[in-house]
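Changelog entry

Holo records now carry the ligand SMILES as an explicit input line rather than a separate metadata file. Below, a converted record for LPXRUNBV, shown in the new format.
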Amino acid sequence: MSQATITRRYRFCAAHRLHTDQLSAEENWTTFGKCNNPNGHGHNYVVFVSVRGDIDPVTHQVLDVSRLDAVVERIVVQRFDHQDLNLDPEFATQTTTGENLVLLIWDLLVDQLPAGRLVKVGVIETRDNYFEYSGSVESMRREEGVRHG
Ligand SMILES: Nc1nc2c(c(=O)[nH]1)N=C([C@H](O)[C@H](O)COP(=O)(O)OP(=O)(O)OP(=O)(O)O)CN2
Ligand SMILES: [Zn+2]
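Structure line, unchanged by the conversion:
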């Protein structure tokens, strides 16, 4: 059976501030510069979710996009849209970098989609900043375990 990948785009607006408790106030400023401003700032985040799988012989689809939309809207968009990312429980001890955000979105989605289907998450933070994550070796092994029992 032929396989294909579908990528769907989602959007949310959120505020954040780059800061870590592992550094002093001065070190935070040196490391993160204006992004450490206590007033915070915002982004129109764009999230790409890529799902791979067999093309169903009847529907001719990998996955109905409305099913994907329902999951991503509920798990990601509703959670982050018009929120301060620094106040999200998952960011209580983590810095709200694009790197950490793309990993968090992966972790939130991977168990909500059919096993082995999620292949990549991408996050655009600014016009010039794009982050992506395709899962860890551990998560791939876990997925294999699910597939093969
Ligand atoms: N490795 C990372 N570096 C930076 C991140 C990040 O998540 N990972 N994030 C930021 C900021 O959040 C930020 O708001 C981007 O600011 P800036 O550097 O000003 O962004 P751009 O140059 O892409 O956009 P402009 O609007 O043109 O300033 C910074 N670094
Ligand atoms: Zn920022």
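Spot-checked after migration. The mean pLDDT is 94. The chain has one domain: 3-148.
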